[in-house]
Amino acid sequence: MALCYFCGGEVKIEGKVFRRNECPHCRRDLHACVQCQFYDPHAHNQCREPQAEGVQDKEKANFCGYFVFSGRERAGADQAAKAKKALEDLFKKK
Question: Cα separation of 6 and 15, whole Å?
Fold first, then answer.
């Protein structure tokens, strides 16, 4: 199951993801750096592919030829909700 980085919605991928492909749920670009398996916010140019050219806007569609759809959710998207619930449960009156 592939997931959209932006909304976490399930995306059915058949073959390559092209520049104009969008998430069916949030309509955000699928061929964007943040959706790629090589995206790493801690790497040089935020990309682990050494031959890829730098891209300014990592959340918009681009022409990178090394793009491979990762299908993973945004790190921390669900963690923030879990942390908030844990805090509410901690201070909940009994």
Answer: 21
Confidence at residue 76, expressed as pLDDT on a 0 to 100 scale: 58
pTM of the shown model: 0.75
Report domain extents, the chain.
Answer: 1-94
Question: H-helix or E-strand containing 3?
Answer: strand 2-3
Residue 1's pLDDT is 77
Whether residue 38 contacts residue 52, with contact meaning beta carbons closer than 8 Å, is answered with yes
Phi, psi angles (nearest 5°) of residue 82: -65, -40
